[in-house]
Amino acid sequence: MDNKKIITLINLMFFHIGLCVSLVSVLIPEVIDGFQTTYGMASLLPFSFYLALSLACIPAGIAGEKFRTKSLLLFAYLFSLSGVLLFGLSPGYGTLLLSLIMTGISVAVVQVNAVPLLRRTCGPANLAFHSTLNQFMYGTGAFLSPLIYSWLSRATIGFEEKQNAFPEFLTWVRPQGLEWVAGYWVLGFFLIIMIVTILLIRIEDHSIHDPIAGSTEAWRYLFQRKYLLFYFLGLVAYASCEQGIAAWMSKFFQDYHGIDPQTEGAALLSAYWFLLMLGCLGGMFLLEMLNSRMVLFVVALLALISLLFALYGNTAVSRVAFPAMAAFESVMWPVILSMALNSVRKHHETLSGIMFAASVGGALGPGIIGRAADWVGLDVSLNYLFLALLIVLSLSFCPGPGVNPDRER
């Protein structure tokens, strides 16, 4: 097995996941205008995507211990490609909803099985570092997705008049008035590349496929590890914090600092995702120098300080502090996830499925903040983020048994 090729493949997988996650949000305004839907109907798109992703994580982890990793990855990408073709060839609200559900399930299978594969490839001591690199690729995909979508939409509209070098194929498959569908087809091209790449790379599986994977005995083994519950709650807290900021930051600036959400507010949100991507580079540097728990303590503490300035500073301070939180958040998920996987010696695929199910926090955080804002105001409800970050901070004091997750010295 060529370790460098495997690591590169996994990085491409997380880049694709970033493309998918970001595109879900980008499509909402276009869906409302193109299919004449209500806001409620449009909100079902991201909800269905994340619900399908969360529900599929645990079954994907169990499957990872019963089937070959290469077979599962091929299934995931072929299933996702089927969803893209379903919507691309027959654009409509119903087919888009079904396509996103299929994509969510595929993303669950990929990420749940990619992390244990990464652990086998790079070793437990290097997992936090390489997981942070995965997070960087995820952030890169999320950052580029709106830009690619916007360029493709504009290019297809002007193709006939400008006769530019844009692939003519995309002008054939998108319906008139739904030029943005061309952006969706990019996922299809990328999926084909991933399928071919997986077929060409040799991927070794476990030396032994555990026959009790997913059984009562396996679940008992995992739940007897008391620290796993704390790691799961930590991931839920992180996801709720990340998405809570992404969902409500622009509205906060509009209500309390008079900033236009369509212009400067959108720019601040873009800066948030950009800093999440760049923060991974700094996190990888820190993980080369410090153990993972120390890194988690430092970034969680800095995030708490940044949040304090973001909520209670003046406009100039808040405009810097809120997006800056992303730089500190960037390494939280990969570090916590690596600590969880390294705290047990077996059933890593099943455990990965359980831990990735914590992405449901991405739906809980914005909901909690929004519901509380109806009662006490958005500025007060955003203080919930302090609780989420304190939970993350507490994990730096949670040693856990099993394999040492820190880089060997």
Structure write-up:
- Helix 3 runs antiparallel to helix 4 and helix 10 packs antiparallel against helix 18.
- This protein is mainly α and 409 residues long.
- The protein is built from 18 helices and no strands.
- The C terminus is likely disordered.
Secondary structure elements and their pairing?
Blueprint: H1 3-35, H2 39-64, H3 69-89, H4 93-122, H5 127-157, H6 159-162, H7 169-173, H8 181-200, H9 216-223, H10 227-257, H11 264-289, H12 292-312, H13 315-329, H14 332-341, H15 348-356, H16 361-376, H17 378-381, H18 384-394
Give the C-level CATH assignment of the largest domain: Mainly Alpha
Low-confidence stretches: 159-166, 401-409
CATH-defined fold name of the largest domain? Growth Hormone, Chain: A
What's the count of strands? Answer: 0
- Return the average pLDDT rounded to an integer: 80
Name the overall outline: globular
Task: Please give the domain count.
Answer: 2
CATH architecture of the largest domain: Up-down Bundle
Strand content: under 5%
The secondary-structure element order is HHHHHHHHHHHHHHHHHH
Query: Going by CATH, what is the homologous superfamily of the largest domain?
Result: MFS general substrate transporter like domains
Query: What class do helices, strands and sheet pairing give?
Result: mainly alpha
Distance between the termini: 26 Å
Number of helices: 18
Biggest sheet descriptor: none
Q: Cα-atom Rg, whole angstroms?
A: 21 Å
Estimate percent helicity.
over 70%
